[in-house]
Amino acid sequence: MAHPSTYQPRSGAEKWLDERLPVARLMHDQFMTFPTPRNLNYWWTFGGILTFILVAQIVTGVVLAMHYIPAEDRAFDSIEHIMRDVNWGWLLRYSHAVGASMFFLAAYIHTFRGLYYGSYKAPREVLWILGVLILLLMIATAFMGYSLPWGQMSFWAVTVITNLFSSLDAIVPGLGTTLVQWIWGGFAVGGPTLNRLYSLHYLFPFIIAGVVVLHIWALHVPGNNNPAGIEVKSPKETVPFHPYYSIKDGFALLMFLLLFGVFLFFAPNLLGHADNYIPANPLQTPPHIVPEWYFLPFYAILRAVPDKLLGVIALVSSIVVLFFVPWLDTSKVRSTSYRPVYRWFFWAFVVTCIALGYLGSQAPEGWYLFFGRVFTIYYFAFFLVVMPVVGKFERPRRLPGSITEAVLGHAEQPRSRKREAVA
Amino acid sequence: MASHETPLDPVLDDDEMSRRDVILIAAGGFTAIGTAAALWPLLDQMNPDASALSLATTDVDLAPIEVGQAVTVVWRGKPIFIRHRTPEEIEQANATPLDDLIDPLARNVNLPDDAPATDENRAAPEREPWLIMIGICTHLGCIPQGQAPGQYKGEYGGWFCPCHGSQYDTAGRVRIGPAPENMYIPPYAFTSDTKIRIG
Ligand code: HEM
Ligand code: FES
């Protein structure tokens, strides 16, 4: 939210810098005094958590890169070398691997928060689009990172996913094959593929960091949405970010790190697949290949469609559709808390995503396939039918007159009367 | 700086086509061409390099492979399935009407592109017991099972892909999706009565 700068340089040096490059002013105005709605709940703490994990992934990643060898015949051994020989190598690698899972957990919660509270609606469309872009970049980054240990799952995940592009052969014969060989740098997944995936795995997190800066910029123009989904009407309805939300975010981060720690120290391999401790074998596909848990819903959608090209189109659309949400939802009300009809569809959508995640881990046959199809249809119907139609016909509940009313249940009273009421 | 208004250039502000426009368009055009030229090496470096292209042929001796046996060799990093088929397997493949096939094309680079997927067009020329094909599922590139004895070969007695359940018959033709195409026949030729060169 644009607000007048309150930064006061305290020393000559600060004043000198402020006149030349006002970074201290920027940090002060954007992260200390930034006016933030006073009613944000804990679902608003995941942005801070995500920023923390991004930094943690970059730090552990850069350190791992000092020991990792991106060569076809040595990558797997170099991971074992990290795990067994490098000082604290086990901790660094497990932090990075579990960190990727935690990153997606937080990102998914953050995204569902945005969906529930209508944070994608005007004037926050660009903010939302940048968020979806970050999600896409994260997916690419994690996919490339998962290839690096060069175990069986790494190898076959790369094979299957890069082959998605070969479906373009159905549109222009030969185009898909040419593209896939360009991606591979050969006629099959191999050393050159590993090398380039490593190069890009190093690069992408920094692109993500750049988009995160834009994301926060786009947040600080309109300011935060809030659980009531109504506009901030007066400065009294906001509090400065620091200390109010810096403390709240910090506390939430600590709780999140506890969960992170439980996985990291007690079940570091629970979220991974045992087959990735078998070195890559280009001549043998494991009997069951499954992606990491955070890709399972998308994998279920891919497999729900019996046609190769259409399956790939469904897979891509399942993420791309998110870009259009600001225009698909026709409701005037932001927060689902005030939408008596839509809320049922919303929770059905959450269940659908979890169900697709489960189905993605099962063999696509019999009932699994049947339900995979049912849930895939609902996944798309939620965006393409429910959002436009329900918004038009639903009668929302009465919105609170102001954020203050949403918090206190009534409008703010003069101080003296409030004391009386308490007494 | 935002506070200092820059006066509009009276010449640039002119709507009419002028010499400046020509310079502008020419400069833009050459910048685009130059950028494309500089981009090409950056993109083309990713294509299969000389060392990958040089691994282009593989020689195999078929003599030790008994009827009913299958072996897998590697060509250009890809598995090549070689199956010495039994008379029943050949019979089964020949008995299948072409209309029953998901993909009616032979997918044999040694034949014209539109050759139909008959068993004759899939098998080795004049040596029908031999089926030599790239052992890669045409769905998303997994390696189907069915080479080793005891592996599940699917309902059509050929190969079964564990990834998403595609099934192939004894001529390597896809019978149950999601794979869209028959497994491909690589370029190969007999160099003697029992030897082939792939590639
Ligand atoms: C957006 C942030 C990042 C995500 C989501 C991510 C994700 C991943 C994943 C899923 C793995 C596979 C873990 C495993 O199973 O072993 C991995 C491995 C790896 N990553 Fe990252 N990564 C990120 C940032 C980075 C950065 C900035 C670097 C810097 C070079 C890096 C370097 C590595 C290396 C060397 C490996 C191989 C070692 C290993 O597998 O543990 N990563 N990454
Ligand atoms: S890769 Fe064979 S069925 Fe998908």
Question: How would you sum up this structure, described in words?
Answer:
- The complex is a heterodimer of chains A (423) and B (199).
- Chain A has 423 residues and is mostly helical.
- Chain A has helices spanning 12-20, 23-32, 46-65, 75-84, 89-116, 125-147, 152-163, 175-184, 191-220, 241-266, 296-304, 308-320, 325-328, 342-360, 366-393, 403-408, 415-422; strands at residues 35-37, 238-240.
- In chain A, helix 5 packs antiparallel against helix 6 (125-147), helix 6 crosses helix 7 (152-163) and helix 11 crosses helix 14 (342-360).
- Chain B has 199 residues and is α+β, with helices and mostly antiparallel strands.
- Chain B has helices at 19-44, 50-54, 87-95, 119-122; strands at residues 58-61, 70-75, 78-84, 130-134, 157-160, 167-169, 174-176, 188-190, 195-198.
- In chain B, the strands form three sheets. Chain B has a three-stranded antiparallel beta sheet with strand order 1-9-8, with no helix packed on it. A three-stranded antiparallel beta sheet of chain B has the order 2-3-4, with no helix packed on it. Chain B has a three-stranded antiparallel beta sheet with strand order 5-6-7, with no helix packed on it.
- In chain B, a hairpin with a 4-residue loop joins strand 6 (167-169) and strand 7.
- The termini of chain B are far apart.
- The chains are: A mainly alpha (423), B alpha+beta (199).
- Chains A and B meet through helix 7, helix 8 and helix 12 of A and loops of B.
- The structure holds protoporphyrin IX containing FE (HEM) and FE2/S2 (inorganic) cluster.
- Residues 54, 57-58, 61-62, 64-65, 68, 79, 93, 96-97, 100, 103, 138, 141-142, 145-146, 148-149, 201-202, 205, 208, 272 of chain A line the site of protoporphyrin IX containing FE.
